[in-house]
Amino acid sequence: MNDYLKVLYKLAEIDETVSEIYYRGNERIEDTKPKYELMGTHAGRRTFIYNSLAPGISAQVVMKWTGHSDYKAIKPYIDIADTVKVNEMNKWNIKMKTDELIRKIDAKLLELSEAPNTKKYKWFDFSAALRLL
Q1: pTM for this predicted structure
Q2: 16 and 51 within one domain
Q3: Looking at the 3D structure of the chain, how many domains does it have?
Q4: Which of 52, 97, 120, 128 is deepest in the core (most CB within 10 A)?
């Protein structure tokens, strides 16, 4: 089956060069191959596990699906999925901070525009400009 997958990947032109570095004793070995030669069913299994854990499917359910009986075997995938979740949460936090800044700017601009004895300048919607960023 892996041989057929390699042919499919080659036909799909998934052929960028990938370097693998490993050690045999003290000797450092760098092996460079096209990506399709490295693909197989196990790569698909790992991808399935990661793609299941990343959106929040419980590890116990994924373990049942994949036949893992030992939590230690699936723990590295959980760690990777958790890192991705942290990065995504950081994006959300930045968005919330930006929205709060826009609200503060809106309030200050409204306050300034309604102040007595204020020169009337052509109105520029700074908060709308920030939303475009």
Answers
A1: 0.48
A2: no
A3: 2
A4: 52
Rounded to the nearest 5 percent, the helix, strand and coil shares of the chain are: 65, 10, 25
Of all helices (H) and strands (E), which one includes residue 22?
strand 17-24
Q: Where in the sequence is the domain holding 16, given as residue range(s)?
A: 1-39
Asked if 108 and 125 sit in the same domain, the reply is yes
How does the average pLDDT of the chain come out, rounded? 82
pLDDT digits (tens, 9 = 90+) for 29-73: 999 999 989 888 888 888 899 888 888 888 899 999 999 988 898
> 53 and 114: one domain?
yes
Q: State the SS3 of 45-99.
A: HHHHHHHHHCCCCCHHHHHHHHCCCCHHHHHHHHHHHHHHHHHHHHHHHHHHHHH
- Please name the residue that has the structure tokens 């299994």: 45
Same domain, yes or no: 35 and 45: no
